[in-house]
Specification:
This protein is an alpha/beta fold and 289 residues long. The chain contains eleven helices and six strands.
């Protein structure tokens, strides 16, 4: 499994040259999720992004030896973002509450700012001091067939499938099936999280969803590593093996509490009524006129 090999700092699943394996180990994992209007014509409302840099964990000497209970040593290095498109912030979408983002700070951006930010993520230099070495590869994860999201990416003007640095497009449903956690590749993220006894909070918010997809994908890919023990030879998820000391829900709760850097794009405040960046709609002087 490609994701398992990446997380455990192994070589490409099908082998490869020394140079290819070096590139593979330098890859960045990026999870994408989005919210669109439910009525036609569909408009992109928000974008959820979660990134994981395997090298950041390797610096602590943990990547090859100990993932921690429910992969908390890996998950603590996941950076999540929730970008809301200013032009469409007033439109209803599929999210129960677009304001209920639990893993960081939501920011309001323009469409161009979204595209530029994604382009920057997909254009990370291998070495800041040696730009001639090119860019780091990207492994992109989505929930559902990654090639079935074309309409949203066409509207945005950024398609991860077509980016030169993308080396793999992964589906979290397929990852779960390959780990033998499910029998088919058509399951909702709530169901996958439930197998690890994780109760998601506002999973319809695409910012939260990006994190939950990342969590489910990592736990599935590392299932044997995290849960197998003499008492649990079938690697049933739970408090087993190196995950015996705490619940997966506790790890997720800790992720919600830890400080996360604010995305270097957009504004934290936006008023859809007067388009001010100094207050929200409910604080707008025009709201009370």
């Amino acid at each position: 499994m490609l994701l398992q090999n990446y997380l455990q700092a192994k070589n490409l699943p099908l082998g490869g040259t020394v140079e290819l394996n070096k590139l593979f180990k330098s890859a960045v994992l990026v999870t994408l999720c989005y919210d669109r209007t439910t009525a036609s014509p569909n408009k992109l409302l928000a974008l959820g992004i979660a990134t994981f840099d395997r090298k950041s964990v390797n610096k602590e000497g943990l990547i090859d030896t100990f993932a921690g209970p429910h992969a908390e040593n890996y998950l603590s290095h996941v950076w999540s973002m929730h970008l809301r498109q200013r032009e469409h912030v007033h439109l209803p979408g599929s999210s129960d509450d677009p304001n209920a983002y639990h893993f960081g700070t939501s920011v309001f951006t323009t469409k161009d700012e979204m595209v530029n930010f994604l382009t920057d993520i997909w254009s990370q230099p291998m070495d800041e001091e040696n730009p001639e070495l090119g860019y780091r590869p990207i492994i992109c994860v989505q929930h559902g067939n990654p090639y079935g999201h074309g309409a949203a990416w066409q509207e945005l003007g950024f398609d991860p499938v077509k980016m030169d640095t993308t080396i793999a497009m992964l589906d979290s449903q397929v990852i779960a099936e390959q780990s033998k956690l499910t029998r088919n590749s058509y399951v909702e993220i709530d169901y996958l999280l439930g197998q690890f006894k994780i109760q998601p909070s506002t999973p319809t918010n695409c910012g939260n969803a990006a994190i939950y997809i990342t969590i489910a994908s990592m736990l599935c890919a590392l299932r044997k590593h995290l849960y197998q023990s003499p008492q649990n030879p079938k690697s049933k998820p739970g408090e087993h093996g190196q995950s015996a000391s705490k619940t997966a829900q506790a790890v997720v709760n800790e992720m919600m509490k830890r400080p996360t850097p604010v995305p270097p794009v957009g504004t934290e405040v936006y008023c859809l009524r007067c388009r001010s960046y100094e207050h929200f709609f409910t604080e707008c002087p025009l709201y009370f006129d």
